[in-house]
Amino acid sequence: MAISSRKKEKWQNLSAEDQDRLVRMGWEDRTTFDSIEFQFGLTPNEFVQFMRTQLDPKAYTRWRKRANQQGHLKHEKTRGVKIDRFKCSRQRTDGSTKGWK
Length: 101
Fold this sequence. Notes:
This protein has helices at residues 5-12, 16-27, 33-40, 44-54, 57-69, 71-74. By secondary structure, it is mainly α.
């Protein structure tokens, strides 16, 4: 699967901290594709391609399987529960979590 140079350039313009934060947001069930698009301007398809470039093949396969099985959590419209924040209540502004090792 080829990725356009414009998308690669868009990802390279993100800082290393933002790229790390995007990967963590991708693994969190609480963070929807809509909130990622709102914060970083990546559509769901662009975000999936971004995750493919950031994760090793096995981790990407696990992530896609998880996102597909729990897909109702990654899309705001299909969620049964209204979650009104992008991050965990224990998460600091820099993205780290209290007590996380």
